[in-house]
Amino acid sequence: IDSLKSLCRSREKIIKEKSKILVLLTNELDKSFPEVKPFFNNRISTTLLYILEKYKNTEHIALMKDYDSLRKLSHGKFTYAKFANLKELSKNSIGFHDECSDLLISSYIKVIKSLEEQIESYESKISTIIKELNPSILTIPGIGELSAASILAEYGEISNFSSPAKMLAFAGLEPSINESGTLEFNGKMVKHGSGHLRYVLMNSSLTLLKFNPTFYDFYLKKRSEGKSHRVALSHVCKKFIRLIYALETKHINFDPSLLK
Predict the structure, then answer these.
(1) What span, in angstroms and rounded, lies between the C-alpha atoms of 149 and 204?
(2) Which of 17, 132, 139, 238 is the most buried (most CB within 10 A)?
(3) What's the CA gap between 196 and 132, in Å, rounded?
(4) Helix axes 2-32, 195-211, angle to 10 degrees
């Protein structure tokens, strides 16, 4: 569990670092080839990174010939029509590039690829560990290895918690309580505890809506009561935490027929 926690947190840090470099790359592309990101649906895809790494600027992209490499890399999604359109777009780009911009783009791509290799290495080790642990949470449809690993890494041994409420408090998802004289009312979530754990739990809860009718119906019920999407999702998250507690403390697999 300790190893899993170190790996998951290190992976999160590297992903954030990669995001920062992607922003720098985007800023440089906005100057040297502003048309290229909209062409790729505003995503820095693997195909785009390959093109930028090999050709660097609009002059070279306009002359590129290895369509087969791009087709294979994109698994056929990058069609010849797109290939021809990108070359034409490069010829007529309003962007400006020089040796400095070419160097920056090359440097950013090298860093991104290096970070991606680290992420893949961490994810491979995380996968190995979580398979060895084989937690019951993995039997929940929609919960993958990385999500399960992050949740268990942050919580540690679920049996150390005396109730789901303790798990909720540990994640900082319980509502704060405001008192004024004889009045008491629920406020916003206190948001102490692990921010990474909260993020994973909330995103996993969002995924559960796609795979489990009971969770989705519960979400719709909260929305019908006038609650916002975020608040309704937090209620789904609480239900998810109760499910995790039941599965891991009883050492049983997920059974949708028992979910209320």
Answers:
(1) 12
(2) 238
(3) 23
(4) 80
CA-to-CA distance for 35 and 79, rounded, in angstroms? 18
- Region of poorest pLDDT, from 30-34, 47-51, 165-169, 188-192: 188-192
Average confidence score pLDDT of the chain: 90
Regarding pTM above 0.85, the answer is no
Nearest to 149 by CA among 5, 45, 257, 20: 5
Does the pLDDT value for residue 95 go beyond 50?
yes
DSSP 176-222: EEEEETTEEEEEEE---S-HHHHHHHHHHHHHHHHH-HHHHHHHHHH
The first and second tokens of residue 204, run together, are: 């996993």
- Dihedral in degrees, nearest 10, Cα atoms 8, 10, 15, 17: 160
- Let me know: does 254 contact 247? Beta carbons within 8 Å: yes
Q: In the structure encoding, which two tokens stand for residue 239, read together?
A: 């239900």
Q: Which two tokens stand for residue 125?
A: 């080790």
